Amino acid sequence: MTDLLGDAASPALALARKWRPRVFADLKGQEHVVQALSNALTQGRLHHAYLLTGTRGVGKTTLARILAKCLNCETGVTSTPCGVCSACTQIDAGRFVDLLELDAASNTGVDNMREVLDNAQYAPTVGRYKVYIIDEVHMLSKPAFNSMLKTLEEPPAHVKFILATTDPQKIPVTVLSRCLQFNLKPMPPALVAQHLGEVLAQENVDAEPAALNLLARAAAGSMRDALSLTDQAIAYGSGRIEAAAVETMLGTVRRDYLFDLLDALAARNGDDLLEQARTLAERGIAFDAALQDLGSLLTQLALLLHAPRAIEASADAERMQAAAEQLDVETVQLYYQIALNGRRDLPYAPDEFSGFCMTLLRMLAFVPGSQNSAPGSIPLRGASARSGSRSLRAESALTAPARRAEPALPAAAPVAVVPPVPVPVPVPVPAAAPDAELVAPEPAAPPAAELVARESTPHAAWDWLTVVGELRLGGMAKMLADHCELVSQAGDAVTLRVGEAHKHLLDLAYQDKLIAALRDKYGATLVVTIEIGAAADKTPQQVRTRIKQARQAEAVVAIESDPFVRELVDQLGGQLDATSIQPLGENP
User: What is the pTM of this model?
Assistant: First the structure.
């Protein structure tokens, strides 16, 4: 790797200029383009127009200049220009008369293009080819593009066009069809960090590997941006590049803070979580960047949980492993989605700090299996006469203490009611006696609590419904477990049955995942047999369906037996729509 200038003045140049590639071998990350052009030059299969596309800083203009040297090197058309002849040195210095670089962003009109094309008919002055490099070609006007078509289709033999753009979609297809198109890829952070290390080693600048990784990620695939940020980091750190200084310079969040946030979330400690948010605020860290970096960390955690080989070694590998042990795959995915939505909603929050805090609290509230989000049996309340209001609320439910010796209706899940029938004229409702007791009717169906206890106790030692709920399964493997019935379980031998209607779930991959999850929970010696048999009636899916139906029946009974509801129906002459009643905590 060689720098652009070798004299004493070269250190004064910006790194992006000083280390600009001068031959194909120095170009990083674009091997697919280099190979195609090198083969074409070696075999003499030259095209009259090339289109280089890609995001900023990936080497479009640099590649165009190298190609111009390959075409005009005094040693002949070659893929390895000498770099010392008059043509090569003048192209490097930007003084070659037969190389014309045109910025289409400032020369958009047809008159500018016509002047270029009129000059193209003349033979080159000193070189072999007259090369036109048109940067940001998509900025040309439609008339300017139209004026190019004839020349692009039948150009003079001594003319080569090299077009470069960051937005090829804006180029007319009539122009695209006349060019060889090469797409330059954004460079991966690992490659950028490696190149920065090589450059800094020759510049005699000490740099921490973690700092180079930060600069590489901030460059977003652009080598030019990476070198410019490195220049800034050298100035910021007085000749030494440290990770802490780069984090401060870039305004990124230290990974320690992010891991502290995850620890607080895993511990479900709201006070600690808000304290970490205040720490970020005191350090002046942008909350949008904090959510972005948190999403990036969650992405790495998801990879660690699903594909550990995809994770590169890092200084915080121990904390990554600790976080992965505290969070399951579903929780990581949920946190990631909430972080994305939090970034989107941040501009609409009263202020960024409150928006950031609400995003963290949302993660705390909706974590799977948490006390806040788990559906539970909440005591049912009757309408209170002391409140002075008899309006029904969505979260209201009814309890029915027993007045007779017969068993009372157990507490049902809270119920939600659709809005009552609109009443054009208010009807006065007589005041009810305070603390009135409600008499529960005979239950029409077994109570949900009874049904849960009865359905979740198989004849074997295992509680299969509970076992399936504790397994870390997803997708089709989870569906297979939900449609299996526990036939027998004795020691390490377990037999499951799948009904004929669901035998399509017995794919070997799904079976392997289910068996692996059971062995992770109960030991590697477990022997699991899955058979196809008569329709199973005690699968977790069927048990949950029956429990849901029982809860729905209890909810309907609780609403229909409420005196206030009956009185309201009688006065309005309406009819209660049982399908609109739903236990609280279930999706409509």
Answer: 0.57
